Amino acid sequence: RDPLTELPNRQIFEGMLAQAFQRADATQAKLGLLLINLDGFKGINETLGHRIGDRLLREVAARLRSLAQPHMVARQGADEFLMLIPNDASPQVAAELASSVLVSLGKPCLLDGREASVTCSIGIALYPDDGGASALIAHADAAMRFAKSSGGAAYCFFESRMVDGFRDQAEVLRDLRRALALGELELFYQPKIHAPTGEITGAEALMRWQHPRRGMISPVEFIPLAERFGLICQLGNWLIDEVCRQIHAWRDTGLRMRVAINLSVHQLRQPDLVERIAKALHANEINPSLLTCEITETVAMEDTETTIRVFHQLAKLGVSISIDDFGTGHSSLSYLRKLPASELKIDRSFVLDLETSEDARKVASAVINLAKSLDLKVVAEGVETEGQNRILREFGCDQLQGYLFAKPMSARALALWAMDDVGPRTMNFRDSLFKATQPAEL
Ligand code: C2E
Ligand code: CA
Ligand code: CA
Predict the structure, then answer these.
(1) Using an 8 Å Cβ cutoff, are 433 and 258 in contact?
(2) Can you spell out the DSSP letters for 51-78?
(3) Rg of the chain's alpha carbons, rounded to an integer?
(4) 246 vs 63, 291, 387, 436, CA distance in Å?
(5) For residue 101, what pLDDT is reported?
(6) Cβ contact 285:227 at 8 Å
(7) C-alpha 239 to ligand 1 mean position (Å)
(8) Residue nearest to atom 29 of ligand 1 (CA)
(9) Average pLDDT for residues 384-413, to the nearest whole number?
């Protein structure tokens, strides 16, 4: 048994499952398997401490046990539980059980005088419809990941496409390793515009992958994959070196570009991240103030201890910090004030709806005011229309970024544009981006 929760452990559960499969085969009954994974448990452990984390797990176990009869429940690992419906499982029965798990775990519990509540993601697989004995747990796991990736606090039934994708993913992942080794990855740069003057003040580096057979693969696809399979730090290290190399190369041509990079949560946990950045800056003789690190709000709020530590180290180095996709996560304002960030980026989803939704306007305007009162700069991303542009300027947004001004482009295209002023749209680069003397050629 699992000593912490006193639930059966995975081994015992697998034994019970094997018997259940035999019985089901003999009687042609159906089984249902729920795989329950807590959302954001790591954050709870880190902010409230492991003792409280353990207590929460015991409380979750007790609640699951009380729901489980006559079903069976086990602890599969850290914050993951399994529940078996041993007979007459139908999609309805499984969905009802999953709903009651969500409701039950969602009720607040008192831990050390504090109220905490958790949500969870649940994957459901039915036997025999969703696979044989050997695959049922894996399929419930795939369904759980699906629920998790759609935002959590939900249940999801297994569908075969969830694992079709997996074979594909394994292939993509193998290719990504190779791409990294062969230098098939490239950075594109998207300008940031100073709203009052319309001048370009810097650019955000965005990864691009030209796959030899599949064509351009979006970072929306390969970054999460790299994160899930432990390749993101290698990608991130490459990014840091490449950006610094590029800033240096631009400077040789007379362009003093400020660049923002996106950092993933795994990079923040990398013990030598700050040292790496410092080294790359130093090796390329770059003033740290030319570099900004963008970190999404969700990440910044998830693992607060690590985040605060790394943010302070970065700030000490002289690198700026920007909170990306702002408005989509759950920021604590007191926590936000403690972070040495200098910029908020309003998430694209609010910009997208500015012209049609009063709510989006309210959020955008509130974020702009919040940023101003916290003395932070504010950037709106994904500006595509003149209407959005006008509204954001009226609200007093400092900087704008989006297809309306410029799409992400190659480093060379950006340099040509800066030097010759031939671009998608006439726009000036801020004077401070240039050295006193301009070079003769690129
Ligand atoms: P993000 O950091 O929010 O980047 C903005 C994304 O919005 C970029 O997509 C950009 O091309 C796109 N975009 C910019 N303006 C517009 C617009 O006007 N309309 C629309 N529809 N889209 C616009 P991209 O390059 O596909 O990157 C997507 C996400 O992938 C990024 O979101 C970021 O989270 C991640 N990513 C990209 N490069 C890196 C990287 O080097 N490291 C890490 N960790 N993540 C990266
Ligand atoms: Ca970004
Ligand atoms: Ca963003």
Answers:
(1) yes
(2) HHHHHHHHHHHHHHHHHHTTSEEEEEET
(3) 25
(4) 55, 12, 34, 20
(5) 95
(6) no
(7) 14
(8) 220
(9) 95
Which single residue is written with the structure tokens 């974020």? 367
Residue 334 has pLDDT above 50, yes or no: yes
Helices (H) and strands (E) in the chain, counts: 17, 17
DSSP assignment letter at 216: E
- Ligand 1, CB within 6 Å, residue ranges: 190, 206-207, 218-220, 223, 239, 262-264, 294, 324-325, 381-384, 402-403, 408
Ligand lying nearest the CA atom of residue 297: 3
Hey, whose CA ends up nearest to atom 42 of ligand 1? Answer: 262
How far does residue 324's CA lie from ligand 3's centre (Å)? 5
The vertex-412 CA angle with 410 and 418, nearest 5°, equals 105
Cα 382 to ligand 3 centre (Å): 8
The rounded distance, in Å, linking the Cα atoms of 194 and 203 is 11
**Token pair 């914050």: residue:** 79
**What pLDDT does residue 167 have?**
66
Quote the mean pLDDT of the chain.
89
For the segment 9-39, what is each residue's pLDDT rounded down to a tens digit?
Answer: 888 888 989 999 999 999 999 999 999 999 9
Give pLDDT, residue 34.
96
Distance (Å, rounded) from C-alpha 48 to C-alpha 118?
13
What predicted TM-score, i.e. pTM, was given to this entire model?
Answer: 0.68
Q: Identify the pLDDT of residue 441.
A: 38
Question: Relative to the CA of 347, which ligand 1 atom is closest?
Answer: 3
